Amino acid sequence: MNDSRKVILGLALWVCGVSALHLRLNFDWSVYLNDRLPESERKLNVAYIPVT
Amino acid sequence: MTDYISRHTASGNLFIPRLFQGFPEIKEALISNTMQAGFMVAPMAMALWSQGVPIKIVYLGHRYGSAFVVRKNGPIKTFPDLRGRVVAIPTRFSDERLIVFRALKKYGMTAKDIRMVEMPPPDVAGALAAGAIDAFSMGEPYPSQAEMGGYGRILFKARDLWPDYMSCVLVVRQDMIDKRPEAVQALVDGIARSGLWLEKGRPYREDAADFVGRFYYHQDPRLLRWALTNPLDRVMYTPLTPFKPDFELVRDLMLETGTLDHSIEFNDYVDIKFAEGAKSKTAWAYEPGGLEAR
Lengths: 52, 294
Fold this sequence. Notes:
The complex is a heterodimer.
Chain A: H1 3-25, H2 29-35, E1 44-48
Chain B: H1 2-6, E1 15-19, H2 23-31, E2 37-41, H3 42-50, E3 55-60, E4 63-64, E5 66-71, E6 86-89, H4 95-106, E7 115-118, H5 124-130, E8 135-139, H6 142-148, E9 152-157, H7 158-161, E10 168-173, H8 174-179, H9 181-198, H10 202-217, H11 221-229, E11 235-236, H12 244-257, H13 266-269, H14 273-277
Parallel strand pairs in B: 6-7, 6-8
Antiparallel strand pairs in B: 2-10, 3-10, 4-11, 5-8, 5-9
Helix pairs in contact in B: 5-6, 6-11, 10-11
């Protein structure tokens, strides 16, 4: 494997790794999946602020 | 809190909680139907309804839990010392602003004697510490934050001037009430059960401070522990049924202070049936730190 291939492969792995971590740590799957349910089955989105 | 405990039940979470940093953003999210329900200060909910926003108040979030805070060791020793000073409030449509008007009236002052500024609740304690404001009227845990930080002193609690004080209410879009009343009832039932669970005593409040601080408010759990236990009745979670006299008092104060331009009737902007439906509910069967809830 020549150097340019190694760089491209490393870059691709880095992008995939960061994307996977982002989807695991930052993406709210409960909101995403809830929004795709039929309206009659969807859970309510309830807004709150950090105050009692 | 309701979300955390309900996740430990066999049926799972009842709703999707979404964190916001200010009441105006919640207002916009409700109008655009991004949020179907939300907690907001009672006067804002009433003002929105009076402006034609299709929402109803269905329950309270808590009672008491707001306080007027000044700088510790600062020049403000009594309320009249605030003449010419800057006081922060969460929004002009808030009970925290109305409590300032009550204090002004008690001490023979008017709104012209102080300068009220609107500030997002998370910013007020830092602003007081930095000297950007002289006082703030705000809900917990921000009075606790100023106390714990050693730079704030509670001049008075809201309940000192307003015995049945309430602040945050639960509002739901009218289309949800019409189309999915069972989902709204499940939400109100869950909040009622959480309130009863919190009122079981200190260990329950301490546990709530821990998981709410870490997973929901993203605040130091010690801060919420202070707010919920110092003393235990600093914030109360029963009764949460909306009472007509409480709302009529808010309405009258809003009319008096110019945040409502016409009178509105309790039965029009409050839907009491969900609170009535939740009256027979009991506290969550959930032990602090447990893995299962019923």
